[in-house]
Each structure stands twice: as C-alpha cells, then as structure tokens.
Design a protein that fits this description.
With 240 residues, the chain is α+β, with helices and mostly antiparallel strands. It has two domains: 3-98, Arc Repressor Mutant, subunit A, CATH 1.10.10; 113-232, 2-Layer Sandwich (Beta-Lactamase), CATH 3.30.450.20. Helix content is 35%, strand content 28%. It is built from eight helices and twelve strands. The chain has a five-stranded antiparallel β-sheet with strand order 9-8-12-11-10, with helices on both faces. It has a four-stranded antiparallel β-sheet with strand order 1-2-3-4, with helices on one face. Helix 1 crosses helix 2 (52-60). The chain starts with 5 loop residues before the first strand and ends with a helix. One of its GO terms (molecular function) is DNA binding.
Length: 240
C-alpha cells in the first residue's frame, strides 16, 4: 500500500484509490459491493455536495440490490453508524457530502446559510439556477406547513408546480423577467396548497451570488401569507 495511493478522510480512516478499499486504524474494512460503489463515488466528489438522486443512480448500477430515494438515506445512515470515523453529512436540499478534514470555509458557510433559514417562521424556498429548470433544492418547515407538501415532494420541482392552473397571473411574468435578469423582485401572487386551497402571498425573490466567483448560486424566495387582504377587500365591497 503506497502513501500516494491513499486519500485521507480522517486521522484513522483512508481510502485506497488503487484497490478501492477503506482502511480504518490500519485495518482493511470489509465493504459490500454497494458500499464500495458509494465510497468510490463520494471520494470522487470529496468535499462537494452530491444529489441524492445521483447517488441512487450510482448504487443501482452496482446490481447488488435495488435502491430508491428512501432506501439510499437508510443505507447511508447505516453506514455512518457502522463506520463513525467516516464523515458523511446530509446537506439541506437532498444532498450528501463526504468531508475530509480539510473542508473549505465556503462549504461551512453554505451549511450555516441553510441552518439559518430553517429557523425562519416565514415559508422559504431555495432554487438552483445552475441546474436544469431551476429546481427547488430546499424548503423550510414553514413552507411545508403552509402548502401541505412533504420536503421530498417539493425538492426537485420547479416552483411553478404551486401555481396549479392559474398560470396567467401578471406576477408570473414579472418573476420570469427578474429571474432572467438575475434581479430581485417582490410580487403578490396566488399559489395553491396540496389540497387545492388558494394561498394569496407577498413573495420576495432575491438572487444570491458567490462573491468570490462572481456567479449566481441560488434564488431565495420568502413568502408572506396575506390571504386576509383580499377577503377584507371583498367584505368592504359588500358594504359599499
């Protein structure tokens, strides 16, 4: 075993690129076909978030067993317990990451970013404009409570799934123009819950840039439920 063949994960844990093996405290760790496939993929993307679905595709290629999104999560959880020296973290938005000890400051900042917005009482959605169709990569608990969707149901979709058949709103045109120009926008919009109930909201969308790379990283959407406003105006019209 050559030292230049090894990738250091922690003080006691190394991955051999040549033999595709994991060594813990100098001893060979026995891995299943699927576990070895997972490590190979995560080491290739070390210190970078990888999507749950990408891991799913990799594992299903192992032909050892059939996986789905839930079983992938359970599989990784089991691996964490059996190999606690390996630092595989779950990142909001359906991502996992294998961390080495030399994790960059920028990744820590991203984790803190999602931890902060999770605590917001306002419904919040984060999308990734660098992926096809600008999919949702994160929603907080307040979002799930307002719209009635589970986290897994929302992530991966474009926000248009909330519009239902109400697709001719002027606000949607304003949103599209702002996203295209990478500029912030605030609109009043009608969306719909999972059960089909209308939610009238004030929506603020802000582009989030990576200042070091000068590149657009996310769109951050913050909702404020203002259903009482049109109901109030309706009552006023009845009185007048």
């Amino acid at each position: 075993m050559k030292s230049n063949d090894l990738i250091r994960l922690t003080n006691s844990c190394y991955w051999s690129v040549q033999t595709e093996s994991l060594f813990v405290d100098g001893e060979y760790a026995k891995l299943s076909i699927s576990q070895k496939k997972l490590f190979k993929f995560l080491v290739k993307n070390i210190n970078r978030p990888v999507l749950n679905l990408d891991i799913l595709y990799e594992l299903n290629d192992s032909q050892e067993r059939e996986f789905n999104e839930k079983s992938v999560r359970n599989f990784i959880t089991g691996l964490r317990k059996s190999l606690p020296c390996v630092n595989i973290v779950n990142i909001y938005g359906g991502y996992y990451m294998l961390k080495s000890e030399q994790i960059s400051r920028s990744l820590k900042i991203k984790e803190q970013f999602f931890e902060i917005i999770e605590q917001s009482k306002n419904p919040i959605v984060v999308t990734n404009p660098n992926e096809y169709d600008n999919p949702i990569i994160y929603v907080n608990e307040a979002f799930c409570e307002l719209f009635g969707y589970e986290y897994e149901e929302a992530v991966g979709q474009n926000c248009r799934f909330l519009h239902g058949n109400d697709t001719k709103q002027e606000a949607l045109k304003q949103i599209r123009e702002a996203l295209s120009a990478q500029k912030p926008v605030e609109v009043n919009i009608c969306n719909y819950t999972k059960e089909g109930n209308m939610v009238y909201e004030d929506l603020t969308i802000s582009p989030i840039f990576d200042k070091q790379k000068e590149q657009l990283s996310y769109f951050l959407g913050i909702y404020k439920d203002i259903r009482s406003v049109p109901l109030f105006l309706e009552q006023v019209q009845k009185v007048l």
